[in-house]
């Protein structure tokens, strides 16, 4: 790894798989897509909470390279939600000083979405608040391969970890300190595979639309209790970072 981050109580970078939207809706006898709509409200709320708590980067998995396999009407609803979020929600985020970025293979999205992404990033690029990164048509394996391909195009025949890291999506951000997955599954599901090499993992059964300030504070409390050694022994850590 390129550097050992300082241990802090509040993670600088939080990565989230927002799982459980469909089940949330099903439990309420609503169509699955209503869960996604509520999930977007939860995301907005989490931006507010994370900003207030001092998180610098929040990265969320909104649509994986595999999600195209979902029923056509669900994919189409998600695309509509994304498009409207890029307009309305991003305006609010901009007013609150957030920076918005999107990572993933943009070319599969409609021109309107691609234009919306460029506009959202442009509008918010000089903001100094929390950076919200939306992973859309993203996959961790895809990210590593696109980085390797950039290096090949540059003529590299042998590469270092630093070379590859520098070409990954989100290269300018610190690697995630904390990975949260809601909805009871305990998989990484091809999210940021390389960047999460040293992330602490937190899993909860709470469904994403029910996730709230209390729940994220539980995740942060769990994070605070962990002893992050980055390969060192416990005794090598500063006293205040050693577990009793
Ligand atoms: C997983 O829940 C969730 C998704 C595949 C989509 C996540 C999208 C949002 C939260 C909408 C907001 C984001 C943007 C940027 C528009 P699931 O449907 O797999 O839930 P299930 O496991 O209960 O079926």
UniProtKB/TrEMBL annotation:
GO terms for molecular function: ditrans,polycis-undecaprenyl-diphosphate synthase [(2E,6E)-farnesyl-diphosphate specific] activity; magnesium ion binding. The keyword Iron does not apply. GO terms for cellular component: cytosol. One of its GO terms (biological process) is polyprenol biosynthetic process. Its EC number is 2.5.1.-. NCBIfam families: PRK14830.1 (NF011405), uppS (TIGR00055). This is Isoprenyl transferase. The lineage of its organism: Bacteria, Pseudomonadati, Pseudomonadota, Betaproteobacteria, Neisseriales.
């Amino acid at each position: 790894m390129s550097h050992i981050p300082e241990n802090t109580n509040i993670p600088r970078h939080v990565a989230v798989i927002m799982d459980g939207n469909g089940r949330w809706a099903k439990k309420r006898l609503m169509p699955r897509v209503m869960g996604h709509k509520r999930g977007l409200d939860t995301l907005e709320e989490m931006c507010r909470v994370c900003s207030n708590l001092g998180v610098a980067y929040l990265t969320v998995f909104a649509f994986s390279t595999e999600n195209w396999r979902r029923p056509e009407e669900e994919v189409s609803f998600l695309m509509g939600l994304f498009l409207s979020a890029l307009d309305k929600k991003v305006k609010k985020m901009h007013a609150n000083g957030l920076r918005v970025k999107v990572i993933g293979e943009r070319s599969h999205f409609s021109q309107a979405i691609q234009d919306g992404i460029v506009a959202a990033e442009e509008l918010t690029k000089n903001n100094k608040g929390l950076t919200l990164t939306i992973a859309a048509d993203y996959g961790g394996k895809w990210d590593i391969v696109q980085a390797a391909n950039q290096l090949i195009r540059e003529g590299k025949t042998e590469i270092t970890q630093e070379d590859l890291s520098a070409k990954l999506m989100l290269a300018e951000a610190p690697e995630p300190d904390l990975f949260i997955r809601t909805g009871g599954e305990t998989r990484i599901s091809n999210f940021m595979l390389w960047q999460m090499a040293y992330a602490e993992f937190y899993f909860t059964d709470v469904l994403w639309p029910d996730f709230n300030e209390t729940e994220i504070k539980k995740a942060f409390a769990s994070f605070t209790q962990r002893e992050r050694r980055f390969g060192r022994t416990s005794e090598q850590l500063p006293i205040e970072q050693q577990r009793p």
